[in-house]
Amino acid sequence: MSRLAKLLVQPPGVDTAPVDLDSVPDDHCFVCKTIYNTVDDPDDPEEQPESPVQIHPCNHILGERCLDQWIATCKPIPNCPMCRVELTVAPPVEEPFITKILLAIANLSWFQIQDRLVGDLVHIFRDLNGIGTSWNGAVSAARGRNLRLPEAGTIVCYSAIGATANMAIMSSIPMNIFTGILYLFHANTSVVSRFHRYYNAAFIINSLAYVLVVACIMGVILYQSRLLRNHR
User: Transmembrane segments in this chain: where (predicted)?
Assistant: First the structure.
């Protein structure tokens, strides 16, 4: 299996099946005595309620969190905490590709994300300066004919800079805004809860401000290009 394929596949786990709470003979887990559909810490928004699951092949029913804790202590061969029979291992399950992307973004710190945003702007300004400098000869010749033009360093090829700005926006902004909105509206889901330290309303505002800066740069470029065409 390729490295990419391994990243997109969850490790195998114990084969379990959800159980209807009404069909469970007891209202609590037989092992840990936790009552189903309750949480240990009501003040913790990330804690999921205990739910009953049936394990195979023995078909015993116990709490899902209790089972996870038990399996973590009985590696490498998982067994039932009630009868000690070896449990059936479920086949690997492929996760959606977008989940892997979001988890990869979650591993970035706030400062790394900020550096990437600032880095995009730095590259745009470098392109502005570099392309403007390459136009020095043409600007000097135009001024020799007494044309009213801006400074040489600010005369740029707006189509080339437009492509640069578009690449910067396409590479960073959409995913940043998407993950921020995802956190705001779905912060209780198991995947998105891992982003709560990084994505919030301030981050969305920061991304929108970045788009505004790029739009202002493009406006200046188009305005100067129009001046250049009017004086030809």
Answer: 155-186, 198-223
